[in-house]
Amino acid sequence: MLVHPWDAPDSDDEWRQWLVGHDFGQLVAPGRGRDLPVVVPTHFSYDGAVTVRLHLARPNPVWPLLEEHPRALLTVIGEYVYVPSDWNANPGTDPLAGIPTSYYATVQLACDVRVIDDPAAKAALLQGQLAQFQPATPRAEVLAGDRNLPGIRGIELTVTAVQAKFKYGGNKTPEHRQDLAAHLAERAGPLDGAARAHLLRRLPG
Prior knowledge:
Blueprint: H1 12-20, E1 24-29, E2 38-43, E3 45-46, E4 51-57, H2 63-68, E5 71-83, H3 85-88, E6 101-116, H4 119-133, E7 152-167, H5 174-187, H6 192-201
Antiparallel strand pairs: 1-2, 1-5, 3-4, 4-7, 5-6, 6-7
């Protein structure tokens, strides 16, 4: 992933705080000597530091690849919007000659993988995810003897490297970025408000 200096996070705290607020991504498992990786869209639980946990169905095609090579990439993307060419044209230039772009936030976690098959450990993982994703929904406690547990396997990811990017016009002047923020507010698309908040948050000063 290309990360220009103006798109890089200000600190590890920036990407960690962002990731804590997101819970769905794509697990990419390369295996060994394969033509293409297996990519699995999945919910996950992030502990705010270096550990991610999730579970997948036992028939998922990812398991042989994780056994061949217990490494994976978890990639998460959010707050993405399209920026039209006329918006992105620098002030004083012909808007008809502008170049469109995309704004987005993303974090890519390179991870060591531990597959969890112990029933008690799987029960604890699932119980934790239920508490995270449906805290107000009554449900029986998940125990090691739960009849549904054999149908899933757990995964614990330990983060070993991170690439993060907050692409919100960081190469533009503050004045141009204010204009871009005004355009996003006026368009008011599904993710425009969240993208605008990132743009304004990352303004100098």
